[in-house]
Amino acid sequence: MIKNNLKFILFGLSLCSVIANGQEKNKYDYQEAFKPFFYQNNATETRSANGNPGHNYWQNRADYHLNVSLNEAKNELTGTSEITYTNNSFDNLDFLWLQLDQNLFNKDSRGNALIPSSGSRYGEAGNEFDGGYKIKSVQIDGKQAKYTISDTRMQIDLANELKARGGKVKIKIEYSFVAPNYGADRMGIEPTKNGKIFTMAQWFPRMAVYDDIMGWNTLPYLGAGEFYLEYGDITANITVPANHYVVASGELLNERDVYSKEEVNRWNQARNSEKTVIIHSSEEVNKADKTATDKTKTWKFKIENTRDFAWASSTAFILDAARIDLPSGKKSLAISAYPVESDGKEAWGRSTEYTKTTIEHYSKQWFEYPYPAAVNVAGNEGGMEYPGIVFCHMRSRGEGLWGVTDHEFGHIWFPMIVGSNERVHGWMDEGFNTFINAISKKNFNNGEYYKKQSLQRMSNSFFSDALEPITTQPDNMRERNIGALLYYKPGAGMTILRETILGEEKFDKALRSYIKNWAFKHPTPEDFFRTMENVSGEELSWFWRGWFLNKWTIDQGITSAKYVNGSYKNGVIVKVENFGQLPIPTTVQVNFNDGTSKEVKLPIEVWKRNTEWSFKINSTKEITTIKLDPNGAIPDTNTENNVFNMSKKND
Prior knowledge:
25% of the residues lie in helices and 30% in strands. The protein is globular, with a radius of gyration of 27 Å. By secondary structure, the protein is α+β, with helices and mostly antiparallel strands. The strands form seven sheets. An eight-stranded mixed β-sheet has the order 5-4-8-2-1-15-19-17. The chain has a six-stranded mixed β-sheet with strand order 18-21-22-23-25-24, with helices on both faces. Strands 9-10-11-20-16 form a five-stranded antiparallel β-sheet, with no helix packed on it. The protein folds into four domains: 123 residues, no CATH class; 173 residues, Sandwich (Immunoglobulin-like), CATH 2.60.40.290; 153 residues, 2-Layer Sandwich (Zincin-like); 90 residues, Sandwich (Immunoglobulin-like). The longest helix is centred in the C-terminal third of the chain and has 21 residues.
């Protein structure tokens, strides 16, 4: 998900900067930074010491067959969710937990009670809309079941325990709900001149995850914390007014039933086209009859090995598409759905181009895209992601549309492929995704929208007392801090790890290994930490401890520099001190009077038993200045001690 209140984020970060500038820094303690026993848990049958899934790793499975109908006039969905749940754990289960996320929009929900009077992206204070599920029936293996609803969760009692190691149960739930116009910036209904756009997510009861870490994961949905879901196959039959067009997660199975003959021809042309092909044009949208109709069409979709399913429906959609080329030789299809208000080459007319190139880049760089289609939908969300489909704001255009498209599709890798627990470890999807977005942006169209960013500029924002640690649960941090703690700071940490600590080759190999080994599984932060260390061969607990688990500051400074025996021809002795709590490999640039320069790097091991370090730099030329971190790659909180002027200091 991407935040749409950018001014609010920047205000919060500016406030953090003011606070950080005035805070007292703690002194560096190398024994604390490098103390042993960072990993408290030994290897288990389910999780190996090297960060891989263990030899007896298991996870449960949820397959869904979904039928849903849309009542456009009432904004109401009526559906049936049929779930085949497989218990692969070592435990017999007496009950099941499901997620009822639509209950967030019940006026008496816990999440609604948390909306401040000043407002929130997750809801409106005092909103009279009263949504939530109306459950008609719940059946287990064809028999009525006893169930209890608690806010956004449902517990179903089982008449017979569900056996371990492969026991299956069939759940059938009949339900309905009225969709909110603005569903916590994750779904909603947007009016346009050619009809409403329905972007539907968190719309069917979904299984909670039962795992080897917590058993049942039953944290309620409060708005900020996103999702943790089981994998399986999903088929969906979506019945809408006959003049609507539907896009959804996965593969459209019945295009001949829902498209005209000409549209089917265009659809097939798009499957084989590098360039964007219009399937349903703006002219056709404007001319079409948008009056309410009792006639319906049913659109059928299927997606495999997925953790969720979302869809969108409207009379207002322009549709276009183009072929996606994947590294293995397989093909996928980039699709865009947007209203005429969003049309144009400066806006959504480039959406499919953005989608195609984004998917192709991430597939080549990290792991191949697994789904038959990638759909970008213009709605009223700032940006939200689901398997095979994303929702971006209809008013996005230019670099903004590129950025939100790239970000939301980046989430296919984190957390759709690598299925971390977003409700608890939000940084593992938003932060990782923010990091890979920066590489993608540099890659797109020869850097069309790329501008090199200095992490140094963000330093004070990263180390403020106003921020919680990165590893704080999303629902446990101030909303104004979400941008910094879920996105920017963990993303910057990954960049530092790649560019300063490990180097691109080591880092990329390790991250690819993590993605491959945990694809469609449920890793924890420790699994990530262990993988990066085992593949790279480097000890990194000092970085995990300081950057992610704590709020340690970075501050290195040059405290002295003197020519050997008083002559620049004999070289120079430089003393660097670590003032901040978090050590970092040190880069020193010596700038000579003739305009040339020399760079020296000190490894992290220098700081394992020292708070300051003096070293000689061989040179025979007169030095003007000596500078730490010349490229601004490190968010050092005090740059005043980063530059040493030789001419002034040695007068």
